[in-house]
Amino acid sequence: MTAPIRHTVQFQAERAHATSFNEASARTRIELLLDAGSFVEFLGPESREVSPHLKIFDLPEQFDDGIVVGRGSLDGSPVFVAAQEGRFMGGAFGEVHGAKLIGLLRAARELRSIPVLILFDTGGVRLQEANAGELAIAEIMRAVMEARTEGVKVIGLIGGRSGCYGGGGLISACCSALAVSEPGRIAVSGPEVIETNRGVEEFDSRDRALVWRTMGGKHRRLLGAADVFSEDTVQGFRDAALELLGLVGTYDLGRLKAEHARLSDRLRSFGACEDAVDIWAAEGIADAEAIPELPADQFIALANTIGRTSHDAR
Amino acid sequence: MEDLNFQHTVGTRAGGSRRSAIIGVVASGNLEVLVERVLPDTECRLEIKTAATGFGDVWNAVIADFVERHSPGGLKFSINDGGARPDTVSLRLAQAIQLIEEDGQ
Asked: Which residue of A10, A34, B39, B67 lies most exposed, with the fewest beta carbons within 10 A?
């Protein structure tokens, strides 16, 4: 029986190398991220736990409410995993969507030893369920911090079409560590929101180069918000998740104080910078202008020379 | 939103041993198909919730064609549709039957 199993494992690895994380569905991301055949879903689509709100707005529902949660194994060790589907309502958090993630995090808190991987792909709160969605964000943030307090590692993987915005950006900031790819953007207010509230001179949302160098994965890695930069393949994120699980230390007051000191330093050093390129130049990168064009492998090599600045919170 | 239901009597049971499978997402021009092996071997049922109202005749034609080609006996299809075109619907139905006819759970 060994031969067919080996074949499956090899086939899975080949697919993980060949599959863009950005373009894959939430289900494909989980399937290829975890060990072959190890995923067991909680509250799967056949249980039909759909949003109680969308019907009121005459909008279509999705059987899993846009998030897949469950357990599996990563390199032989158990993990909990949640993946948002960025194409269903922009991966936005609604009541059921949020509750599934909260339940998963609370299970991890109770068990203490099993890490949680969150594959973010979200624009933030689903507007049609605004209050329930906002409450979900708050409850998820609490659940992340409670799980971490009990020693659980909570790793965020960000490389989806919808990026990680709004409440998703807040939750990601509560995680133990983050991996990001170039197309994965991380922020709270999105480009259009900033432009609407502060004017086009503050932020031109149609300037895609500006959006990417301000919120994109490369900048987040160089600022220390994300700990690892991954190429845009599911295998890249699998390797990143394994690296981060080995990297994350204990979560305590000392670590939080160190992080606050780092953030104060960052503001002192870069607070006057007008653009991300100015920050990269101030960090000592010789050819800062060239960063957006760098291929993933060259960027990773460059980022590693600058070192890891994160202290387990961001 | 519009709800559409179709029931067909078919000659043969769908192959494979999986109990259920899902394919697709609910997005503009896309749909999800949840297929479950829950009916008697000669029955096939499709329950559709679609965001595009008034296309019952097109659905009827697409599904009649699908049932004739694949003979999906014993299967119930639950569909959430974000306004997909008929060719996308045919593709997703074919993917769903391919998935549930695989071996496994």
From this structure: A10
Cβ neighbours around A122 below 10 Å, total: 29
Angle A143-A148-A152 from CA coordinates, rounded to 5°: 105
Specify the amino acid at residue B26. Answer: V
If you measure CA to CA, which chain A residue comes closest to B49?
A60
How far does the CA of residue B50 sit from the closest CA of chain A (Å)? 7
Question: Using an 8 Å Cβ cutoff, are B83 and B28 in contact?
Answer: yes
What's the pLDDT tens digit per position in A192-231? 999 999 999 999 999 999 999 999 999 999 998 999 999 9
pLDDT tens for A56-107 read: 999 999 999 999 999 999 999 999 999 999 999 999 999 999 999 999 999 9
Is residue B39 a part of any domain in this protein? yes
Cα distance between residue A254 and residue A264, in whole Å: 15
Q: At B88, which CATH number?
A: 3.30.230
Structural domain boundaries, residue B51? 2-100
Strands A77-84 and B20-23: unpaired
How many domains does chain B fold into?
1
Enter the ipTM: 0.95
How many CB pairs (< 8 A) connect A and B?
A: 43
Nearest to B81 among A48, A55, A60 (CB): A60
Residue A55 Cα, gap to closest chain B Cα (Å): 9
Domains in chain A, ordered, with CATH? 12-252 (3.90.226.10)
Q: How far is A3 from chain B (nearest CA, A)?
A: 18
Pairing of strands A228-230, A177-181: parallel
Question: In angstroms, what CA-CA distances link A240 with A104, A168, B102?
Answer: 21, 20, 31
